[in-house]
Amino acid sequence: MAETLRRVLSASSGAWPGEENTAEAGPPLLLLGAPGSGKTALLFAAALEAAGEGRGPVFFLTRKPLQSLPCGTGTALDPMRLQKIRFQYPPSTQELFRLLCSAHETPGPAPSLLLLDGLEEYLAEDPGPEEFAYLAALLLDTAAYFSHRLGPGGDCGLIVALQTQEEADSGDALHLALLQRYFPAQCWLQPDASGPEEHRLRVCLEPGGLGPRTEWWVTFRPGGEMTITPWHTQAGDPSSDKGSSSGGHP
After folding, report:
1. What's the distance, Cα to Cα, between the start and end of the chain in Å?
2. In the chain, fewer beta carbons within 10 Å around the N or the C end?
3. 3-class SS at 151?
4. Which long-range contacts (CB under 8 A, 24 or more apart) does 194-201 make?
5. Residue 218 — pLDDT band, cuts 50, 70, 90?
6. Which among 62, 69, 34, 22 is positioned nearest to 165, based on CA atoms?
7. Which pLDDT score, from 0 to 100, does residue 60 have?
8. 38 and 194 in contact (C-beta within 8 Å)?
9. Domains in the chain, please, with CATH?
10. Rounded CA gap, 241 and 250, in Å?
């Protein structure tokens, strides 16, 4: 699923022009970042990108309704794309289980992308290791089921966003280690020095063995506008590796 995020980030920064979209969703992706790091904005941008590909709708799962639609995500808020994003708000882990287990009853065309925002809010209910592993496996099984419904050449991608903490306890570390076994592709959002009126992040995308690691700068300006530029390592620049180990990033 790194391909969808890469297209979002590359299109916004003007990199890799003219590349064709691919129906291959790739391995499931884990989107990781600290509170307020823009995970929801990137997740919503991925939803808009997938909704404009002319395939199935997008399922966006989150515990609470979005207070406002993220702006400046690199893709215009086309009403036709917005209509293809179907929001669901399971309020608890058990309701999330129920929703995923009833995926086979979902009417209409199968989705091309399944998104879950705010996994940490469900983890706050303190599920046991077995229940947590079941949730991760159920997410993968649901995406696989939708891929089967899409038929030959179709593939339903999966992206899950999880909030990380600078000082994670043993339980958080266990959850992350378990998730990384299920989600080989990962995207890390790492805070960088920001000005008084902007918030800048370094985005590190690792596609799970399907390509090289790619990085960008993402800047959120007043009003929520998001701008993206390619990140280039410069020899001798001590800041080039800044934050590379933040939140457990390799």
Report:
1. 20
2. C
3. coil
4. 194/219, 197/221, 197/222, 198/222, 199/36, 199/38, 201/33, 201/37, 201/38
5. confident
6. 34
7. 97
8. no
9. 2-16+23-244 (3.40.50.300)
10. 11
